[in-house]
Write a structure and sequence with these properties.
The chain is mostly helical. The protein contains 12 helices and no strands. It is globular and about 45 Å long.
Length: 300
């Protein structure tokens, strides 16, 4: 069951990259994040109110760490992604996220003092090289200059946020149900996003509103973000991680660039280039090096 839940979560997140790339052309990225998590909060509280009420005291007792989870998973991860998708392709962004298993390995080593082998180090180097190579290749193609594009920087920040979120799940309160945890994180994330959206609008003097162009397609895209990458993916992922642990579950992150890349090529006409293949090969090699057959204790 854990493997199915993690696979579905990753596939739904792959669609998030494609839907997000389209939606940020018609919806303010800050507003899109606010609508997404505000809608998810209302949906989850309506569905799981009884469970949420039972777990609320425990959630409030660990408010500090839960705010951190909300900031990483509901604010920084999607917001930097949506802003970045204005400047880079959904294919590139989905490939960056595939580096997170190696990033989680490093976080677990330096923060939680897990052992890291020479093979693991080689994997991290290979995966990091692939990410940097993709960013430079994308920037060079766009500007003929060997510099990072803003879209690449922001989507890499998104991947880093997700890596920290996944690594820190080991310290989540094990007594709190996954639905209550995600609902509470969504609520806190929404509260954080409200002043961020207002400040963004004031500083940019952009008062056109959140959605620039209403259409059935835009509404359908927003509903997709609320139902699949937000509600189902986060609940499925947290449940899957609770069953097999953070390190073993991270391998399923690599379904995100596969599903997101395929959907980007099919629906958005993204071009699959040689440097994408090289990047994926480097990251795949890194994954192989970072994977282990050693039994890992459950960490969530």
């Amino acid at each position: 069951m854990a493997y199915l839940l993690l696979s579905l979560a990753a596939i739904f997140w792959g669609g998030n990259y494609v839907a997000g790339h389209v939606l940020v052309q018609y919806v303010d990225p800050y507003g899109l994040s606010l609508i997404r998590w505000g809608g998810t909060t209302l949906l989850m509280l309506a569905l799981y109110w009884k469970t949420f009420r039972q777990d609320y005291i425990a959630l409030r007792h660990n408010l500090g760490i839960n705010v951190l989870f909300a900031f990483l998973g509901q604010v920084s991860f999607p917001l930097s992604l949506y802003i970045g998708l204005q400047y880079t392709s959904s294919l590139n962004a989905s490939i960056y996220i595939s580096s997170t298993p190696c990033l989680v390995l490093l976080i677990n080593h330096f923060i939680f003092h897990e052992r890291i082998s020479t093979r693991n180090i080689l994997g991290v180097i290979a995966s990091t090289t692939g990410v940097i190579y993709l960013a430079f290749s994308n920037a060079q193609e766009a500007t003929n200059l060997k510099i990072f594009g803003w879209g690449d920087v922001l989507t890499i920040i998104s991947a880093l946020s997700w890596a920290f979120y996944c690594a820190f799940l080991r310290i989540k309160n094990k007594e709190v149900k996954n639905t209550s945890f995600v609902a509470f994180s969504s609520l806190i994330g929404t509260i954080i996003l409200v002043p961020m959206f207002c400040l963004h609008a004031a500083l940019t003097q952009d008062f056109r509103g959140i959605i620039y162009d209403f259409s059935p397609q835009i509404i359908a895209g927003i509903l997709y973000l609320i139902i699949f990458p937000s509600w189902l993916s986060y609940v499925f992922w947290n449940k899957g991680v609770s069953l097999i642990g953070t390190t073993r579950s991270e391998i399923y992150t690599h379904l995100i660039p596969v599903s997101g890349g395929v959907m980007g090529i099919v629906f958005l006409g993204n071009t699959f280039r040689v440097y994408h293949i090289i990047t994926l090969l480097l990251i795949a090699f890194g994954i192989a090096c970072c994977s282990t057959k050693k039994t890992i204790a459950k960490t969530v």
